[in-house]
Specification:
The structure is a single chain. Helix 18 runs antiparallel to helix 19 and helix 20 packs antiparallel against helix 21. It contains 23 helices and 10 strands. The protein is α+β, with helices and mostly antiparallel strands.
Length: about 725
């Protein structure tokens, strides 16, 4: 397999071939390719502002069909007149609220439907037992612009509230609005920061003005066309798109496309040193870059598609979405970039144009003898065993921090970093009302087992009260006690009849603790255990979080081993060896463990994060292993190529010195693009940004630069066992 940055061998003639005459093919073909990409980008570019039309951040929609929370969510609309999203308005005074204050608040709540997007089914205002707060349940239409509606509702209620009363909008609608606001900068801010970071690195690496723009254009066009395909697939519900997936797609395409472009440009620059004709240089660079780029992209795609095994749709759809992005990143690097380079020629490197110097290249004998990587190669020849042993011990020490990682899930109120009205409102709600108000636990049970289910709920200390959905009740539900359904009105008034759908009824239990707390989660787990005996199904906000975390843990334990096996098989095919792939996988896993260990220490000791989602280690593993192994692929395929001619140990030194610069630049670009995710104030993305950025740098500067070369040099040709190179080669 060809290296991404191969220098000519000593037998290389002074020039590759004579300059060819310009033909219509050499002019029209690149122009045609550029026009095709321009059209694709022109169609995909405007969709950046329309992604929210085809995306969803509803956790329930990510769960498998078999999950209890999913089954309950589907049936809720049949018991209620609408599938609106409940918001909780909380009014808190400086002390006990006067009758006048309560009446003013009651009037303000009654006028809430005047806000566009607010449903008519607003509950009456309910005063707390201590008299210091009032709450009201205000449904938001499911088809409303949630963020705008919640903001407008808050403004309306604050304007109408008495002086000295603080108003919060919380509950499911409030937290969803926080997520919408958190993802608001994903189209502009995230993309702008990522592109700026890449531009700065490219300018520093190439010290050129035009080349960074060419490379960035390649990446941006790849993203636009990838977005065009993904948007329409999401439009027709072939894929599920979320803000989280969208952010990862942006970063992954920009980072991968830039990496592939760097590999191609490095080869093109080398070819210009031995070719006067830019067309010959482009063609030679394309031939030398095709296999490593396809192998690199194929490895990433294989790892991403393993996510299809996930129970969570948010994970299973990320695989194909990200894979589509990688496909267009490869296509852009192998079609658009060569076309642009063919038109620009040597001028693309201005003011540091590569010289035509075939004699100098021939004297280098295919190996760089000066510079950082040549010096590092010399160091490895002196102390290979010391280097790889010490490096391994340092990495193991860092990996020990993984024991401090808390990846069992985080409360919904902590998903968004920074200020949160919904979070503050939930705290205020818990101080004056049952913590789970507005986010009840739902129980669907057969009509004849209604009282049995209610008794289970009432007997649990984590449940403050129980009601049954009843359409003929003024409030839409009726309280249930140990004596049955309570009646409204004077004595003798008949109790409302519960709403029955296919022989089933819907019970609602108000949780004592906040719906996203550990205590509430334990209450729901206990209820599920007891209610399972009467075939009741439990759902709601807390149940959804439980099912999501459980599915994430299942996915993590299943998919990580599968990815390792798949990538190991790919490496065995590429390197025609068993031992080398096993060692590469081992070093990559060690690198991942160190990245997670250091990240855990930073999350706990520096940022004081409340924990991590169970999917964080899975996503970190997918990106670090799939992307990190690429750099080892580029290094070791070049080492194998050099080993065939010069022996394994000489091949290691040659491979390291030749590929060092370009792969390090690629690692810096990828780390910078993933670090850009941290500008989105979503806990999951900030944690993923740190893990992947740190892990890529660790893999680039330590594992691929020290550990792998030193280990391969120390082992010699046995690393190629059981291939012909092991049997017939030399150390």
């Amino acid at each position: 397999m060809s290296s991404p940055d191969r220098s000519p061998s000593p037998s290389t003639p002074p020039t590759r071939e004579r300059p060819r005459r310009h033909s219509w093919v050499r002019v029209l073909l690149p122009v045609a390719l550029i026009l095709v990409w321009l059209v694709g980008a022109g169609l995909g570019g405007p969709l950046f502002g329309k992604i929210d039309e085809v995306s969803s951040n509803d956790q329930t929609s990510y769960l498998p069909e078999s999950a209890d929370a999913t089954q309950v969510q589907k049936l809720l609309g049949e018991f209620r007149d609408s599938d609106s999203i409940p918001a909780i308005a909380v009014f808190v005074g400086d002390g006990v609220l006067s009758e006048s204050d309560v009446q003013t608040i009651t009037d303000a709540v009654a006028d809430a439907p005047s806000v566009e997007g607010v449903s008519e089914d607003v509950s009456p205002a309910l005063t707390s037992d201590d008299g210091e707060a009032v709450q009201a349940f205000i449904p938001i239409d499911s088809d409303a612009e949630l963020g705008d509606t919640v903001a407008a509702l808050g403004d309306e209620l604050r304007a109408a509230a008495p002086d000295g009363v603080t108003v919060y909008i919380t509950g499911p609608a409030g937290f969803s609005a926080d997520l919408v606001a958190g993802f608001a900068g994903i189209d502009g801010l995230l993309l702008g920061v990522a592109l700026l970071a890449v531009l700065i690195i490219l300018v520093l690496v190439y010290r050129s003005f035009l080349l960074p723009l060419v490379v960035l254009s390649t990446s941006l066009f790849a993203l636009c066309v990838a977005l065009l395909v993904v948007w329409w697939l999401a439009k027709f519900e072939v894929l599920l798109l979320s803000g989280q997936t969208q952010g990862i797609l942006f970063i992954l395409v920009i980072g991968a496309a830039t990496d592939y472009a760097l590999l191609f440009v490095a080869r093109f620059r080398e070819e210009l040193r031995v070719s006067r004709d830019k067309g010959t240089a482009v063609l030679s660079a394309w031939k030398g870059s095709f296999e490593p780029i396809v192998a690199s992209g194929g490895t990433v795609i294989a790892g991403l598609l393993c996510l299809l095994l996930s129970d969570l749709k948010s994970n299973s759809t990320l695989g194909p979405v990200a894979a589509i992005g990688i496909v267009f990143a490869m296509l852009a690097a192998l079609t658009l970039l060569p076309a642009l380079l063919l038109l620009c020629g040597r001028a693309v490197f201005w003011p540091r144009r590569p010289k035509f110097e075939p004699e100098v290249v021939a004297e280098e004998h295919g190996m760089r003898t000066t510079g950082l990587w040549a010096r590092l190669a010399g160091l490895i020849t002196k102390r290979p065993r010391v280097i790889w042993i010490v490096t391994t011990l340092v990495l193991l020490a860092g990996a020990s921090g993984v024991l401090q990682l808390n990846a069992s899930g985080v409360p919904q109120s902590d998903l968004v970093l920074g200020a949160s009205e919904a979070r503050d409102g939930q705290v205020a709600l818990g101080e004056h009302f049952p913590g789970g108000s507005g986010s009840p636990v739902y129980v669907i049970v057969q009509e004849d087992r209604l009282q049995d289910a209610a008794d289970v709920l009432l007997a649990d200390d984590g449940v403050d009260g129980v009601a049954v959905t009843a359409s003929d009740s003024p409030s839409g539900s009726a309280p249930v006690t140990a004596d049955g359904i309570s009646a409204f009105g004077p004595p003798g008034t008949p109790a409302p009849e519960p709403t029955v759908v296919d022989g089933e009824v819907l019970l609602q239990g108000t949780l004592t603790d906040a719906a996203d707390s550990d205590a509430a989660a334990q209450t729901v787990r206990d209820l599920r255990t007891e209610l399972d005996e009467i075939d009741a199904v439990v759902g709601g906000v807390t149940a959804t979080a439980i099912d999501t975390n459980d599915a994430s843990i299942h996915d993590r334990n299943l998919i990580i081993p599968v990815i390792l096996v798949v990538i190991m098989l790919i490496l065995m095919l590429l390197l025609r060896s068993i031992l080398a792939p096993v060692l590469l996988i081992a070093t990559t896993v060690l690198s991942f463990g160190t990245a997670m260990g250091v990240s855990a220490l930073v999350f706990n000791g520096v940022f004081d994060f409340p924990g991590a989602d169970p999917a964080v280690p899975l996503y970190g593993f997918v990106f670090l292993v799939a992307l990190g192994i690429d750099y080892n692929i580029f290094l070791m395929t070049r080492v194998r190529e050099e080993s065939l001619e010069h022996g394994t140990r000489e091949g290691v030194l040659r491979g390291l010195s030749i590929t060092g610069g370009v792969i390090t630049s690629a690692g810096l670009v990828l780390a910078a693009t993933f670090a850009a995710l941290s500008v989105i104030p979503i806990l999951f993305l900030v944690q993923l940004a740190f893990i992947v950025a740190f892990g890529v740098l660790l893999d680039t500067f330590v594992v691929r630069s020290l550990l792998v070369p030193a280990l391969a040099y120390d082992l010699g040709r046995v690393i190629w066992w059981p291939s012909k190179l092991w049997r017939r080669g030399r150390d």
